Fold this protein.
Amino acid sequence: MRAFAIRRMLERTPIWEHRGWIGHVIFWLILLIVLVLMDFNKVGWPLVFYQKLVDVIFYALIIYVNLNYLIPKFLSKKSFWTYVALLILAVLLLTPIKITIQVMLFSEAPSFQGYFIENQSYFFMSMFLVGSSSTIYGIISDWFIHQSEKIELQTQTMESELKFLKSQINPHFLFNTLNNLYALTLKKSDDAPEIVLKLSEMMRYMLYECNEPLVPLYKEVSYMRNYLDLERLRQHEMINLDFEVTGEIETQRIAPLLLIPFIENSFKHGLSNQINQGWVGIKMKIDSERLTFTIENSKSPSQPKLTHRKSGGIGLVNVRRRLNLLYPDQYELKIKNEPDKYSVHLTLNL
């Protein structure tokens, strides 16, 4: 809608205004100089200058009438034949006026007067070709403007959607972590101060460092480690947790909070209370600019089917959407839901 509105505004705004009048003046001056230099030796300085000045003035007239009136009023509204008829009519009206002025300029040179009168069809065609060329220019220019506004609109839409997705992520994890802290405080656990410290580090990262499109990968890994430490504190001996990182993470960058939903999902939905000793295995490998992320977690074969609430399912759906927006055709995501194991394998070009 915004692109369409701008397009309509451009149709209503004279091209002289929204293209910049200085550029137009420079263009016509250069054209005048070129035309004068081409025929300078044929007639002499004063007459050739006036003749070419008239040519340029009438070329400008047909072009601006075409661009500012005929194209917006008729061609843009798909009245093609009406547009063609009016363009021809404009040329028919302007050409005799132009020839009359040229004949008056050469009142002391009858041979040149005869040249203008005998070649009226040539002057008509030249005016028509100039007008038609401006039509092609107007169409191409309008197409580029439309494409530019379309790209701008798509970019703004994507940025807005990413902000919305990120706003879903942060409260989602904060809520889960506060639940963990609440459970520990109920037990009056000595681990509560440590979980508060981890939580403060996570909140600092989410609030102050995740506002950029890309963040250092090592900070994302640090955030993930903090999250896993919180789970260790909450789960105690109930799970076997392994997190392995290989490769260079100091120099790589990644979209913030992109991988954490997989980890959160493995704890929230993967581990069942029916498992006495569950496990979660996470491996991250960075090879050049390619990241390979694999996470597997145990689950009970008799685990009941999860009930999907309105607030549930944000994690994986959100991640898929962000991957499509931020890394189009640059990732491969495989998810397997087996009877006793849930696994995610992501390959990403950073």
Notes: The longest strand covers residues 278-287. Residues 95 and 124 are 6 Å apart (CA to CA).
